[in-house]
Amino acid sequence: MTDVMQVKGLLFRHSDEKRWLKRPELFRLGPIDLNVQRGETIAIIGENRAGKSLLAKLLVGALAADEGEIFLNNEKYNARYKSSAKTQSRTHDIRMIFQHSSEAMNPAIPVGRILDEPLRLNTRLPESKRKAIIEETLAKVGLLREHYYYYRHMLSDGQQQRVALARSIMLQPKVLVADEPFAALDPSIRSQTVNLILKLQKEMGLAFVFISHNLGIVRHIADKIVVMENGEIVETGKTETIFRWPQHELTKKLIMAYQSLVPQQTLR
Prior knowledge:
Blueprint: E1 3-15, E2 26-37, E3 41-46, H1 52-60, E4 67-72, E5 75-78, H2 85-93, E6 94-97, H3 111-122, H4 127-140, H5 157-169, E7 175-179, H6 187-204, E8 207-211, H7 215-221, E9 224-229, E10 232-238, H8 239-244, H9 249-259
Parallel strand pairs: 3-8, 3-9, 6-7, 7-8
Antiparallel strand pairs: 1-2, 1-4, 4-5, 9-10
Helix pairs in contact: 3-4, 4-5, 5-6
């Protein structure tokens, strides 16, 4: 496999202004170096405030970095700029799935218009062609073409998550970044969504970068694991290697916590 995305020297500094009786708070992320191959799934794990969600926002261009470069298919993008023609091209190739899909859907707008927005803003396709693409994508994520006319309140949680997934693949991206995409779903819907993502990944050759606290899902779908602590990558490796032979103290702590919650026979 070849690298579809390379992240080099990604650095972000954030400082909260001093408040009454409080010292200013400084958070630094990076420098981060990361390679993602076509069709690969990378899981980013760590404790709260490790910088996982911040890294996701930097990758998709929702926040501008202070330093660093992102390469997509060997084309270089400067991660320091949030809005430019080249950054817009980058956001076609890297799309994000949000944790709470319902909050990302306007309740006053039908599904068809929600899915039409990325096509209308980023392509010059006529309305008829855009509608055909939307209906095709709805079918691809396991929804009906009739869902084009549905509103948010008419959809179940699982269907809302499928709409979010449809929106993320509308522009045929190379990389999907997801921040806890399964946390708000009940176990049965979560399992269906995981299998759907694996199916789309195989069909489209997508690379998938996802943040999760659920190490059961991580072990099931991730090819590689990245462990973060205090804004830095402290360990990385193949999934089974990390689970069987963790090296960093934080990794050992996370794996031990996971193993204490599952029957021992499932670990063999």
